[in-house]
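Retry 2 of 3 after timeout on previous attempt. Resubmitting structure tokens to design endpoint.
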């Protein structure tokens, strides 16, 4: 949900730059963030209610670093397990693909606006503002597709745990780092730090 709203932010900034302060005022930004929290809460409640219909009659050891819903489904037993698992996957995939569709739609308008810019330098500068967001979208949806859309087969518990951890931990951890790299002050500070380390090592 947050990546979708960030795509909308890029759309407004590039396609409607003169109206940006009006369309993305602090009040509007707060409303959009509230929608993210609401959407995430609804998703969490739906998945929790679905999982409450499961029966657990075996081991209570979850093969994950957190209480991930797919790892929890593997511990369930009973006739309803297959239908509940399919319901969870459908809810998750629907939310992921719905947000992805709106992100792609925003970039269709963004690319159309960029192509109308006469100078190559202007097009490059405008598109560079989207690189951080696009990188996170590709990383996030790449890992999500590995988890929810992978074919059933002989996957070890360790590989499943690693993939799920990458999706739930690595992507949120990576996001602020990638977005911070666009900050000139931060980049200069990192470069200075590396120069100091290399100069101390060479001496």
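Retry 2 succeeded. Sequence:
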């Amino acid at each position: 949900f947050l990546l979708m709203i960030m795509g909308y932010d890029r759309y407004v900034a590039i396609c409607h730059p003169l109206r940006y302060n009006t369309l993305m005022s602090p009040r509007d930004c707060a409303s959009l963030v509230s929608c993210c929290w609401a959407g995430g809460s609804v998703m969490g409640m739906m998945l929790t209610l679905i999982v409450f219909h499961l029966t657990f009659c075996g081991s209570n050891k979850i093969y994950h670093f957190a209480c991930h819903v797919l790892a929890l489904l593997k511990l369930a037993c009973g006739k309803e397990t297959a239908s509940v698992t399919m319901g969870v996957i459908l809810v998750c995939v629907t939310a992921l693909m719905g947000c992805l569709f709106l992100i792609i739609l925003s970039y269709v308008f963004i690319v159309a606006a960029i192509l109308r810019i006469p100078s190559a330098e202007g097009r490059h500068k405008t598109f560079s503002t989207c690189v951080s967001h696009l990188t996170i979208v590709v990383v996030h949806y790449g890992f999500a597709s590995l988890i929810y859309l992978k074919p059933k087969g002989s996957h070890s518990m360790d590989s499943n745990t690693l993939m799920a951890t990458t999706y739930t931990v690595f992507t949120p951890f990576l996001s602020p780092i990638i977005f911070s790299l666009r900050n000139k002050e931060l980049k200069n500070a990192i470069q200075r730090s590396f120069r100091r380390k290399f100069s101390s090592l060479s001496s």
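Attempt log closed. The chain has a mean pLDDT of 79.
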